[in-house]
Write a structure and sequence with these properties.
The chain contains ten helices and 13 strands. It has 347 residues and is α/β, with parallel strands linked by helices. The strands form three sheets. Strands 2-1-3-4-5-6 form a six-stranded parallel sheet, with helices on one face. It has a five-stranded parallel sheet with strand order 9-8-10-11-12, with helices on both faces. One of its GO terms (molecular function) is 4-galactosyl-N-acetylglucosaminide 3-alpha-L-fucosyltransferase activity.
Length: 347
């Protein structure tokens, strides 16, 4: 009987102890969340909307500042900021590759909080991005134009046409083939192809190499007035498909592309929306095809059939990367690390 009474006392003691413990104890390893903006946060350079995720922009890309609200992307509860005093509260820290020094000078000196993810982001091709060995195993996530990055943000994308959208009409044309270029190097594949193509068809070329300095309005007017536009990339890499494709598509010209293989382009846009140089044995054959389409307007117009279903959206440099990163972090709180960055990106 005494034994049973002692056992009962012990059970009561343990029960009371556990009740007190779970009533007053909270873990110190929970992921930080925000229910409101403090006064100091409102004064800092940040955007607040009852945030539950903080993204710290460690450096502005090429020094270009952007909006800190993600509402335009229908992404909410994100706190984007460049206030480094929030480092220990940030769920993600964005590092723009082209603004990273080779010796990592300027990187955070304090330990990385256990819940925080460092995000490498870059929109330049490997040919125009220097390898930095120290970065190889440093990051948790990648944000890039490549579809196989953790947070893919292409240069543009197609979305369905909505009933309220203006009906597309092909702009009036007074030029056959156009090309606007600023980065001119004789060894570039695109320059070598142009030098051959111009022998067989009239190409109206613009940009600083040709003594033309264009305004944004000039750029829009010229592309819209051309039947075909040379969407030639400065280097050829997987998924490296830039605004050189999406701008003429948006402005009503048919892009003639030089870049990754046709199959890769068709991962991004319909196959009947563009002409690929690889479809022809030589620049001469390409020129003959363009001249044929110029003389056969019904066949030319088939390249705009996709406009009945889709419209082009250009991505917002920097701004969209920060917001897409926040959205990813909201949905992926678990552990993640990215190894062999240099092998993945530079091969």
């Amino acid at each position: 009987m005494q034994s049973n009474w002692n056992c009962l006392h012990f059970i009561i003691f343990i029960s009371v102890f556990l009740l007190v413990l779970f009533t007053y104890y909270t873990s110190d390893i929970s992921v930080p969340t925000f229910a409101f903006c403090t006064t100091s946060q409102k004064k800092s350079n940040c955007s607040c909307d009852d945030p539950n995720t903080v993204v710290l922009i460690w450096t502005w890309p090429f020094g270009q500042r952007h909006d800190l609200s993600c509402r335009v992307f229908n992404i909410t509860r994100c706190l984007l900021t460049d206030n480094r005093t929030l480092y220990h509260q940030a769920h993600g820290v964005l590092f723009h590759h082209r603004d990273i020094n080779g010796n990592l000078d300027g990187f955070p000196n304090e330990p990385r909080p256990w819940f925080q993810k460092w995000v490498w982001w870059n929109m330049e091709s490997p040919a125009h991005s220097s390898q930095i060995p120290a970065l190889n195993h440093l990051f948790n996530l990648t944000c890039n134009y490549r579809y196989d990055s953790n947070i893919p943000v292409p240069y543009g994308y197609l979305v369905p046409v909505m009933s309220q959208d203006e009906v597309f009409k092909v702009p009036a044309k007074d030029k056959l083939v156009c090309w606007i270029v600023s980065n001119w190097r004789a060894h570039y594949e695109r320059v070598q192809y142009y030098d051959k193509l111009k022998n067989y068809i009239n190409v109206r070329a613009y940009g600083s190499p040709f003594g033309h300095h264009l305004t944004d309005q000039d750029y829009t007017t010229i592309i819209s007035s051309c039947k075909f536009y040379l969407s030639f990339e400065n280097s050829v890499y997987k998924d490296y498909i830039t605004e050189k494709l999406y701008n003429p598509m948006r402005l009503g010209s048919v892009p003639v592309v030089l870049g990754p293989p046709r199959e890769n382009y068709e991962d991004h846009i319909p196959g009947d929306a563009f002409i690929h140089v690889n479809d022809f044995a030589s620049p001469k054959e390409l020129a003959e095809r363009l001249i044929y389409l110029d003389r056969n307007p019904d066949e030319y117009m088939n390249y705009f059939n996709w406009r009945n279903r889709f419209k082009v959206v250009n991505s917002w440099f920097g701004h969209e990367h920060a917001c897409r990163t926040c959205s990813y972090l909201q949905r992926n709180r678990g552990y993640h690390v990215f190894h062999n960055l240099n092998k993945w990106y530079w091969g």
